[in-house]
Amino acid sequence: MGNRFENEQSVPKGAGKRLIIILVSIILLFQLITIDKTNPPYDKKDQIQAPKPIMNILKRSCWDCHSNDTIWPWYANIAPFSWTISRHVKVGRQYVNFSIWNTYTPEQKDKKLTAIYKSVHTAMPLSSYTQIHKKAILTKQDRDMLRSWTGKSPF
Ligand code: HEC
Predict the structure, then answer these.
(1) Given this model, what pLDDT does residue 3 score?
(2) Hey, which of 96, 107, 150 would you mutate to test ligand 1's pocket, going by the most ligand atoms within 8 Å of its Cβ?
(3) What is the dihedral of CA 11, 14, 18, 19, to 10 degrees?
(4) Does residue 93's CB lie within 6 angstroms of at least one atom of ligand 1?
(5) Atom 3 (ligand 1): residue with closest C-alpha?
(6) With a 6 A CB cut-off, is 86 part of the ligand 1 pocket?
(7) Which of 126, 131, 139 to mutate to test the pocket of ligand 1 (most atoms within 8 A of CB)?
């Protein structure tokens, strides 16, 4: 009889080690896929102008993805996080870029303001971001201020 584990087929010695080596190699290979972490220059006069309290909220909660002044965290250098972060910034800038706000046409601005009105309710800032950047979480007061600044209404 003996120990019942004796008969069980055990994982060959060294397999765990090999698995770890393979995983580490994959993660290292990931690092070869680099990303664009650019903060393109822009003309200060194109940056959005809003009352100070609004600017403070935008800078605190939106700036990293919706401006050309992104503060890239250290983990933005590490794949696979780097891929997600750079995609968020790239796509975020495509939707709304506060650094080049004044290059938008009045119609574009109008649409974006409506989108801001809607998105600050729940979608923005992205929750994956606020989990790490607690300061970016919008309070009800922040949301109300942003919404009334957009001049939009739910109807
Ligand atoms: C972590 C990055 C990130 C942050 C921070 C962030 N956004 Fe976004 N934003 C995105 C991405 C990515 C998109 C593209 C659409 C999507 O993924 O939902 C987007 C889309 C938008 C849109 C367009 C939505 C549409 O449907 O047209 C608006 C408006 C917007 N964001 C406003 C804001 C505002 C206002 C803040 C700050 C309160 C903010 N975002 C913070 C990443 C971010």
Answers:
(1) 58
(2) 96
(3) 30
(4) no
(5) 65
(6) no
(7) 126
Q: Which pLDDT belongs to residue 48?
A: 98
Region at 151 (left for phi over 0; alpha for psi -120 to 50; beta for the rest): left
Q: What is the pLDDT of residue 29?
A: 94
Chain segment 121-134, per-residue pLDDT in tens: 889 999 999 999 99
Q: What is the DSSP letter of 12?
A: P
Tally of structural domains, the chain: 1
Single out the residue of 30, 97, 41 nearest to residue 65, CA to CA: 97
Please give the distance of CA 45 from its chain centroid, rounded to a whole number.
25
- Alpha carbon 94 to chain centroid distance? 13
80: preceding bond cis by omega (within 30 degrees): yes
| CA–CA separation, 120 and 129 (whole Å) | 14
Query: Domain range for residue 10?
Result: 1-155
